Amino acid sequence: MAQPAAADPVILQPTDTVDSSSPQVPLTSFKDKLSQGPNFTEFLSGEAIGAYSVEAMPWQQKQRKPDWMKRNILPGGDKYTQIKAKLREFKLNTVCEEAKCPNIGECWGGGDSHTATATIMLMGDTCTRGCRFCAVKTSRAPPALDPKEPANVSKAIAAWGLDYVVLTSVDRDDLADGGCNHIAETIRLLKQETEGRLLVEALVPDFQGNMEHVRVIVESGLDVFAHNIETVERLQREVRDRRAGWAQSMRVLVEAKRLGMRVTKTSIMLGCGETQEEVVATLQALRDIDVDVVTLGQYMRPTKKHMAVSDYVTPAAFEAYQKIAESMGFLYVASGPMVRSSYRAGEFYLKNVLRGNSTGQAPVQELPKEQAVMSAAAL
Description:
- By secondary structure, this protein is α/β, with parallel strands linked by helices.
- The chain is built from 13 helices and 14 strands.
- It has an 8-stranded mixed β-sheet. Strands 1-12 form a two-stranded antiparallel ribbon. It has a two-stranded antiparallel sheet with strand order 3-14.
- α6 (149-159) packs parallel to α7, α7 (180-193) runs parallel beside α8 (211-218) and α11 packs parallel to α12.
């Protein structure tokens, strides 16, 4: 049986900031503040939250996941079947299937008055990298790109009548351009097929740090540029492929903003061995480079061959991180155990911001968790 973590470590107050002139943000500047700041329970207005997290046992020891990590909606039903059939018809891949997303039953099945959804993954189902957390297939020489994919994706999504879509992709280090032109062409066709009505968010690779490839994406007509840092700086080598890294990802986000992207976005997984102060330092580093949207979610081990989960962070702790991030000035924050990088909680708000119908202040209330789902192509 899982045991609670020991004593709650201290954490920064939400009003504390860090002066960082570069993406490399040292944690030493936090240590002095930590000795004066409140502990995690005190941050939550004095309300006791119990343990910050629940320790994850080695896989050899049978352990039930905490109740908050259990999903009540299993894959199935008419909408689920229809989406799967339509995706196969157009030969489209989804990150929902390839990454074994725990929300697939909720998203594909619809229900609770929300639209059934599936996140489209471009450039095939095989990645050239092998991050320790990711269930997507890997190969040094994946199959060639499907030249019809941009047209197929744009026609399918245009026919579904969406007004906001999220695309993602595998890494393709085997291609001279990293696949940037393939992604950009898909975005341009999406805009063309919908006469510019469709808002497009794309979660893109780091393109091995090639900023000209980043430029191609930015100039495609994209509305939200997303690139995930995945984890805190200290754990980059343990969590991500050796060709990825903190500095490179931060430079990509900096360049996208410099080139004129109105909204940039990234995601952080918790439960990889990070500390509370490292999470707060990461959030502050992201604000220092003007990242607009951040999502925080629980890492879930896809198979026994992948990186083990260190601990399961409680919903109350995720809520506290959300308050801290919002106080730093992020445009939107989605934070919760089941939140993933394509989480839909902020989609409706971002639509208003991008269409000029909002003041740009963070919403007072987010969508109920049961109505907040992954975003992308809907049927």
